[in-house]
Amino acid sequence: MASGSPTVSREARESAPETPEAAANLQVFCKLCLSEQPSTATTGLQSCKCIYCTACLQQYVQLAIMEGGGAPITCPDMACRKTGVLLDSEIAALAAAGQVELYLRLKFERGVKLDPSKAWCPVLECQAVCNVEQSTEGHPAAVPCPTCHTVFCSGCRGPWQDGHTCPERQAMMTPSHQSRTRSDSDSDMPIKQCPMCGIYIERNQGCAQMLCKSCKHTFCWYCLQNLDGDIFLRHYDKGPCRNKLGHSRASVMWNRTQVVGILVGVSIIVLVTSPLLLLASPCILCCVCKPCKGDKKKKKNKSKKDLSQSDTSTS
């Protein structure tokens, strides 16, 4: 895919218009519809300076609002060097008023979900945003609602009582047969929530290693376990998710071989260059040490002045 800079046709570059009328007829290549459009029918993004035809951007923004869940709407060009993000004013100019209102609401709800210091009041008639005080050692805390004065648990959103224990936390500590059966049946559901940000994700088929486009969290589709540090995909070698990755054994081994090759290559480069750096470090330190240079220059200048003064005194 082309880079983030706008593409102008060859005829337009050769003509090099100077008048406003000629500049209005300048043809710009749109990387969405793959056609040349007059500059008057195009829109440029402020963050990355990419230019697309207005009709394509309108369709792109409308689709991003419906499927993005309030996530930032980025530049359509996947190869955009600046990874531009559309401003709210640009979205308002490209989408209808109802869609803009929906996007702002989803954006606000997403911000509350991603903010650990915020929580929605569980009372349906209230739905106020409450401040959550982070407790020590990861234990749930009591959250008072400033609107309806309901006190609820920050973990399970249930009513808070003295000695309260979250049912979800208790189930995680002592899983029962019923919970395991429910988790096994839930693993076949086509739509699930990201365990990190809570956004809904749909999976039709393919790899079971999921990457949330909202918070960039990597997890297993079946058990929702964190896979951010599992570069070798060892999670699918044992346990209930064994052989459920969705790829052949040969492709998994090839992926591991590539990862090992990259790590070995980086380590070899470090081992080869480290002795050279150790040998060259005194020279580098001497070259970089500017105060030493300044002291030497001052001593030389002082010695020259002393010599000149002695010459004048003898004469």
Automatic annotation (TrEMBL):
- A matching Pfam family: IBR_1
GO cellular component: a single term: mitochondrial membrane
Say which family it is in.
Answer: Belongs to the RBR family. RNF144 subfamily.
* Pathway annotation from the record: Protein modification; protein ubiquitination
PANTHER family the record matches: RBR FAMILY RING FINGER AND IBR DOMAIN-CONTAINING
What superkingdom heads the lineage? Eukaryota
Enzyme Commission number: 2.3.2.31
Which GO molecular function annotations are given, in alphabetical order?
ubiquitin protein ligase activity; zinc ion binding
Q: Name the principal localization, coarsely classed.
A: cytoplasm
Stored InterPro entries: E3_UB_ligase_RBR, IBR_dom, TRIAD_supradom, Znf_RING/FYVE/PHD, Znf_RING_CS
Could you tell me what reaction this enzyme catalyses? [E2 ubiquitin-conjugating enzyme]-S-ubiquitinyl-L-cysteine + [acceptor protein]-L-lysine = [E2 ubiquitin-conjugating enzyme]-L-cysteine + [acceptor protein]-N(6)-ubiquitinyl-L-lysine
Instruction: State what this protein does.
Output: E3 ubiquitin-protein ligase which accepts ubiquitin from E2 ubiquitin-conjugating enzymes UBE2L3 and UBE2L6 in the form of a thioester and then directly transfers the ubiquitin to targeted substrates such as LCMT2, thereby promoting their degradation. Induces apoptosis via a p53/TP53-dependent but caspase-independent mechanism. Plays a crucial role in maintaining the genomic stability by controlling the degradation of multiple proteins involved in mitotic progression and DNA damage. Regulates epithelial homeostasis by mediating degradation of CDKN1A and isoform 2 of TP63.
Binding partners and assembly: Interacts with UBE2L3, UBE2L6 and LCMT2, as well as with BAX. Interacts with TBK1; this interaction inhibits TBK1 phosphorylation and 'Lys-63'-linked polyubiquitination.
* Region spans: Disordered: 1-20, 294-315
Q: What keyword terms does UniProt attach to this protein?
A: Apoptosis, Cytoplasm, Membrane, Metal-binding, Mitochondrion, Repeat, Transferase, Transmembrane, Transmembrane helix, Ubl conjugation, Ubl conjugation pathway, Zinc, Zinc-finger
- Mind telling me which residue stretches traverse the membrane in this protein? 259-280
* PROSITE patterns cross-referenced by the UniProt entry: TRIAD, ZF_RING_1
One biological process term in Gene Ontology: apoptotic process
* Protein name as it appears in the record: E3 ubiquitin-protein ligase RNF144B
Annotated RING-type domain residues: 26-245
Bilayer topology: Single-pass membrane protein
